[in-house]
Amino acid sequence: MEETISLQEIFSTLRRRIKLIILLPILAILVSGLISYFVLTPVYESSTQLLVNQTQQDQNINSTDIRANLDLINTYNVIIKSPVILEKVIAEANLTETVGQANNRITVGSEGNSQVVRITVQHEQPEIAVQIANTVADVFQREIVTIMSVDNVNILSPAQLSANPSPVAPKPTLNMAIAFVVGLMIAVGIAFLLEYLDTTVKDEQDIEKLLELPILGVVPNMDNDKKNRRGA
Q: What's the mean pLDDT when you consider all of the chain?
């Protein structure tokens, strides 16, 4: 016969394992919070903006010129993270990391469909994140004249160190929320696994299911009956 599980059996299983279902998510939250606050190193973020504009001083800008500048941004995004730029950034900022490590810290992207390029840097020290972002912008603005033979990049907004910088990672609240959900899912899974592995007979329903026969009667617990009578 095909065995099916009713909603009543599901809720009965969850009720019997309620301690496990409560304790495991709480434990997951505590572990996640301890790791987020005391183990993981905070990471700070700083960014600067570059404006890709006209190469000439002519103020008559048409749509073709803007389109050409927008096409250049994709090329600039690659050049900014290239070794020819990052090697000079490492030297000028007195960094001790490799080009690959510096590359991983830097994210470059355009602001929507505008001619503005944002350079974002993440670092464990907020002041170094600001220094790297500004150094990348300065080196790129200077070197693009030689690399592309154009002078159409201006620093629109340099990176600045705020009075009380806040880390962008880790995010303890998000981590603990995820830990709660994962812990709850694991707890429910373990509860059903334990229920599946438990072959003991607990009540009349288990006997009916095991023997596939109806129960005709129940023998009471005589010890409990005697105690009840003495108490009366």
A: 85
Q: In this structure, is the dihedral angle defined by the CA atoms of residues 184, 190, 196 and 200, taken in order, positive or negative? A: negative
What pTM was computed for the model? 0.72
Q: What is the pLDDT of residues 126-178, one digit of tens each?
A: 999 999 999 999 999 999 999 988 888 999 999 999 999 999 999 999 999 99
- Beta pairing, strands 44-52 & 153-157: antiparallel
Place of tokens 């690959």: 100
CB burial of residue 183 (10 Å; 0-12, 13-18, 19+): buried
- Check if the beta carbon of residue 149 is closer than 8 Å to that of residue 163: no
Of the candidates 17, 34, 14, 38, which has an alpha carbon nearest to the alpha carbon of residue 179? 34
- What is the rounded distance in angstroms from the CA atom of residue 75 to the CA atom of residue 43? 28
For 137, list phi and psi in degrees, rounded to 5: -65, -45
